[in-house]
Amino acid sequence: MARSPSHEEMSSVKKGPWTPEEDRKLIDYVQKHGRGSWHRIPKLAGLSRCGKSCRLRWTNYLRPDIKRGKFTEEEEQLIVHLHSLLGNKWSSIATKLPGRTDNEIKNYWNTHLRKKLMRMGIDPVTHRPTTDLSLLTSISSLLSAGSLGYTTSHLETALKLQAEAAHLVQSLIQALTSSSTSNTDLMNVFGSPSHTNYKASDGCLGGSFNLQNSASVIPYLNKDSQPVPDFSFCIDEGGVTASRTEEGQSTSSLLPSKSTPPFVSTSSEADNVDLLMSSESTYANSLSFTPFEGWENLNLDSLINDLGCKEIPDQMPWPNA
DNA sequence: AAAACAGGCAACCGCGGGTTC
DNA sequence: TGAACCCGCGGTTGCCTGTTT
């Protein structure tokens, strides 16, 4: 039940920044007597503060186990992930970051992480892409066509369909990221350090895109995000070009662009953070986003084969997750 | 050099839930 | 039973500092 501050509280309490002397008094008192009742601490400790202010000062600043300094990558990942599940439950989030206070996490979210997500085209409230997904509805036919196992005579069609898909993924990724965004950032946003969550089963699409490359060339990358020589998709004003280069000679096919990819979330709300953080359900594998789900049927390796490659590098295809 | 602006963060405020009397 | 008390949470404010004009 809400309670208005008493007249005494209103008239005598000091507000504003704490002085070192006040800090010392509060620390001395708590160290000698423990926390006890915050309501009584100001009087007993000789402070002209309300109990609430003392509690806040202690829990957010003076507590001995407070961790100072910049948030680590791991902490950032965890905050984003937990926020996607819990929303603005800062105290709950703080319980999973030892030494960090809810206030600190809240401030960090509001000043850094929220803006970072927005720059990447992610709605910081819903953790969904802000891209107009209504445009992304007619890809299923594209995908199914891409998974039918085209014969050589169907190469051009398959090439068009799948490179078109690549184009659309590229567009999507560009919507999700700024030019300064790294693969890691994207993975963080999607909640998992594992690229298996958004790779195509044959290893070409998904987390392997070089997101730091804001140009419209999509390299063909292996699971270690290393570009595989000779293969790329190039997006320019004229459309999509799938290319293979061998011994200085380039084989290319110019493709039109028109379709749309699916961008699927299988998000499910977690009941509580402990379940999510349990060993049986680590935050890595409790990932709620599988944004490239549905792309798994794409078989760009066979496409590359069709372009004339006889030897796919050892790293490919990726092992199944 | 100084004013204006922007970002970061500590602290405050109002509210709601739980407990006590 | 309900008023008073206490605590904690999330949202907001305002100060401080660094940067830009």
What does this 3D model show about the protein?
The chain is of the alpha+beta class and 321 residues long. It has helices at 7-12, 20-33, 41-45, 51-62, 73-86, 90-94, 102-119, 139-146, 155-176, 183-190, 273-277, 300-306, and strands at 217-221, 227-236, 239-246, 249-255. It has a four-stranded antiparallel sheet, with helices on one face. Helix 8 (139-146) crosses helix 9. It is elongated and about 55 Å long. The chain binds a DNA duplex (21 and 21 nucleotides) through residues 1-3, 15-18, 37-39, 51-53, 55-57, 59-61, 88-91, 102-104, 106-108, 110-112. InterPro entries: Homeodomain-like_sf (IPR009057), Myb_dom (IPR017930), Myb_TF_plants (IPR015495), SANT/Myb (IPR001005). Keywords: DNA-binding, Nucleus, Repeat, Transcription, Transcription regulation. Residues 250-262 have a biased composition (Low complexity).
Topology overview:
Blueprint: H1 7-12, H2 20-33, H3 41-45, H4 51-62, H5 73-86, H6 90-94, H7 102-119, H8 139-146, H9 155-176, H10 183-190, E1 217-221, E2 227-236, E3 239-246, E4 249-255, H11 273-277, H12 300-306
Antiparallel strand pairs: 1-2, 2-3, 3-4
Helix pairs in contact: 8-9
This protein binds a DNA duplex (21 and 21 nucleotides) through residues 1-3, 15-18, 37-39, 51-53, 55-57, 59-61, 88-91, 102-104, 106-108, 110-112.
Helix coverage percent of residues? 25-40%
Number of individual domains:
3
How far is it from the N-terminal to the C-terminal residue, by CA? 51 Å
Strands ordered across the widest β-sheet = 1-2-3-4
Number of strand segments: 4
Indicate the structural class.
alpha+beta
Order of H and E elements: HHHHHHHHHHEEEEHH
